[in-house]
Please model this.
Amino acid sequence: MRIELINTGTELMLGQVLNSHQQWLCRQLADLGYTVDRQVAVPDSGPAIQQAVREALAVARLLVVTGGLGPTSDDRTRDQIAELLGRKLREDAAVLAHIVEFFRARQRPMPASTRVQALVPDGATVLMNAQGTAPGLALEVSSPHAHSGSCLLVMLPGPPRELRPMFTEQVVPMLQRRFPLETPFVCRTLKTTGLGESLVEEKIAGPLRPLTQAGLELGYCASVGQVDVRFTARGDKAPERIAQAERLARGLLGDLVFGMDAEQLEGVIVRLLTDRQQTVALAESCTGGLIANRLTNIPGASVVFLAGMVTYSNEAKLQLLGVRPETLVAHGAVSEATAREMAEGVRQRLAADYGISVTGIAGPGGGTQEKPVGTVWMAVASATTTVTERRLNLYDRETFKWVTAQQALELLRRQLTPISNPGG
Model:
């Protein structure tokens, strides 16, 4: 089955917005056993949209188009596709009622222009938008050139917070009914941190070779501070092969594995603390509150996360955390001693089970021969012990902050689930 994806938006072509739809939708489809054959991005012009859709309809059985369903003058996708297919647009009463209620519930006036979002092409199935006003649309389109004779065309709104739940909750069931897989498909991803992509491969590729020769597909995806190991298999033996591969990989990687599939490290931390009925408090310097931001992105974090202090200056470290003046004089702000006192101070002052601290030199200036740019000290304090760790993170400032936050969360995870690290 051929699948094509079209992302519309002049902002994509100007580089003003990252095309996250391509990555997210391709990943979602792949995890379900559907592989995207081609993805293109086009500007918000009528000819560009129609040309891309025309080409895709000639060969695809599934076409997903994102963006251009809103109320402004550059939202042309719905109108251009309706014109291309010769479908009249008619106002849908249920969609209009949803739009009216959306503004009423938020006590905001409804702009007259938003009413255009209630226009639906003849024959289209409406995908209601729980997060916004523009509905998604799905149409069966006959195509004499496609070998199947028809194509399912799905239009989704551009904002990710609207597109993603709509796709997961409404489009996925539609696809599984319309395009059932011919053979069972299983996909599992192990999330690791602490080793680079090539070293992860060195640990597991050899022992997993008999399974890959028997049909298991093994892949790696490296991102900042993390490597995902992906197992996929098709056929009646797929569940058995995936389960065997996971057991082998977990045994070889040990505590490098922090989660699986869609899990994030911060989500694992919240889950572990919740299960243990324990709490954490943060003392951040060089990460500027990023650890707190990541934790509070997880539903239920309020049960375990007490507070976070961004103690960027030495004065803040002294006044808010109780770091001793002599420690700063003797060792400096970026030091093991300061990181230790930061973690212990925030834990004690907020009566948390764990305190996390990070202090470092993000650069590009401020480094010395003894403490070069990228130097980080972090600590995790509990009632019985304080664990410290030094890292050298040679990245741009934004990446430096993300990697440092990842390392600090991982340091806490290892205190919550202490096991040996096989192979060093």
The chain has a mean pLDDT of 93. The first helix runs from residue 10 to 13. Residues 3-178 form a domain with the Molybdenum Cofactor Biosythetic Enzyme; Chain A fold (CATH 3.40.980.10). The chain has three domains: 3-178, 185-260, 268-416.
